[in-house]
Amino acid sequence: MLVAPHGGRLIDRQYDGEAADEIIREVAESQTLTLNAREKSDLEMIGNGAMSPLEGFMCASDYHSVVDLMHLSSGPVWPLPVVFSKKPGDPDVKVGQHVGLVDDKGTVLGDMVVEDIFDADLMTEAELTLGTTDESHPGVQYLNTLSGTYIGGRIRSIRRRETEEFANYRLDPKETRVLFRAKGWRTAVAFQTRNPIHRAHEYIQKCAMEIVDGLLLHPLVGETKAGDIPADVRMKCYEVLLQDYYPSTRVVMSVFPAAMRYAGPREAVFHALLRKNYGCSHFIVGRDHAGVGNFYGTYDAQMIFDRFDADELGIVPLKFEHSFFCTKCGGMATAKTCAHDAEYKIFLAGTKVRAMLKEGKLPPPEFTRPEIAKILMEAAKGGEQ
Amino acid sequence: MKGLIIWMKDGNGSDESLLDELGTEIRQRGGRVEVFHTKAAEKLGMQEDEKARSEACAMLARHGVVVIASGTGSCTVAPDEEITVREITRIELADHTSHTGFMRDLELAGLVPPPTHDVHPDEEEEILKKLRNLGYLDD
């Protein structure tokens, strides 16, 4: 049996077909609130159950409990707020009111019954959830764009497959769960990524695959910060890699529609819990997971898992150290398995790799597979034009 | 788990498949279930005696069993520390939304285990079809 969803029940508040048409008709009679890119992702993931047990945007009780204690007011672990922020152009709404949720083009994406309207101290939120109020942190920058008034309530979301990016790779938690069962998997490890897969990533994925039935390669395709490699380029890399270097029966690739929060340790727990809802029993946590700049320690995102009981998490974090190719070992390794000096270890910083690619130089094959490097090089050249 | 009697209070003897379905659902979740059919009540000479049937249900429920039964009126057993009584109508049991809500309430009260299946079997077929179309599974 697969791992149970977080909170015990997979939420399904996503509608299509006639049910979605009915929501659109109801919304036509209601006032509407506009979702930003992160809220749009969150709406989708609440609706499809990825954020189970959440059934809507958080009310004050959950918000404060999560910010202060990393638990929902009902008990389950939950490390980050999932909130809807009132925007300057939004109408004044009241508790109990039915509202439509639309994107910036006015497309109806769902609805909500308002249960709570509350003010939040955004800098306290930043300090506690991101660990900083430094304005160079993208998460703090995001909070600085918000009004400080949150509107909470249960939602219904509309699935609009026709406009979804990577539609062929978009699987909801109930779909991955059915897929895993159909493949006979009882355990699966999820790999979260917003970067191309270099040899180091491939190594830790394959180490993890040795102890579970299957791998869910789950690239994040929601909003990321400027400078991150675009999702379509990353997808091309994964496709090529999977075709030639992984056993097709033991890997599933699907997109993860979340927006990055760059909340480091707390976001690592968040990513793990969401993958549990997708049916994964294990989750790979590498170095500086969901980090940005130098805001978090290299292994902070691993250590935070020790603050919770295994039972309340319900998913096993697989903590990997920084991996590299060791020319003396003649293979991939980490500090746990290789004691050779730094001169034998092939490691390139991301900035150096980007510079090489822009100059048309391929990184060494021990660092990046040549097929991947070529895709990245073409993308880097295209980005310059 | 505390004992539970689920009592369909507007039963007419011809709708026991609803009780059986409910029993199967709770059994699939890992619950210990006894559906107290009209036939069993007849064999015990209780078909006309709802008080006796209620008492029989209570005896089973006190052993931590989920007992599902029906009558033409309310269950005559009062809930106590060992057992809980939840009544439902035929319409509520047959209607998907109210049925789901009823089960969810029992689940939240700790009276039945949470579901082990995250997808309804009918929906599972649809999902499998989609997964085949997308190439995730072979035909």
With strands numbered from the N-terminus, the spatial order across the biggest sheet of chain B is 2-3-1-4
Give the oligomeric state: heterodimer
Instruction: Give helix and strand order of chain A, one letter per element, not per position.
Output: EHEHEHEEEHHEHEHEHEHEHHEEEEHH
Helix content of chain A: 25-40%
| Overall average residue pLDDT of chain A | 91
What kind of sheet is the major sheet of chain A? Answer: 7 strands, mixed
Q: Which sequence of SSEs, written as H and E, runs from N to C of chain B? A: EHEHHEEHHH
The pair of chains with the biggest contact is: A-B, 19 and 17 residues
Tally of DSSP helical segments of chain B: 6
The gist of it:
The complex is a heterodimer of chains A (385) and B (139). Chain A has 385 residues and is of the alpha/beta class.
Topology:
The complex is a heterodimer of chains A (385) and B (139).
Chain A: E1 14-15, H1 17-28, E2 31-34, H2 37-47, E3 56-57, H3 60-69, E4 98-102, E5 108-113, E6 116-119, H4 122-130, H5 138-144, E7 149-158, H6 173-182, E8 188-193, H7 199-209, E9 214-219, H8 231-245, E10 251-253, H9 264-277, E11 282-285, H10 300-303, H11 310-313, E12 316-319, E13 323-326, E14 331-334, E15 345-346, H12 350-358, H13 370-384
Parallel strand pairs in A: 1-7, 2-4, 8-9, 8-11, 9-10, 11-12
Antiparallel strand pairs in A: 3-7, 4-5, 5-7, 6-7, 13-14, 13-15
Helix pairs in contact in A: 4-5, 8-13
Chain B: E1 3-8, H1 16-28, E2 33-35, H2 38-43, H3 50-61, E3 66-70, E4 83-88, H4 90-94, H5 96-108, H6 121-133
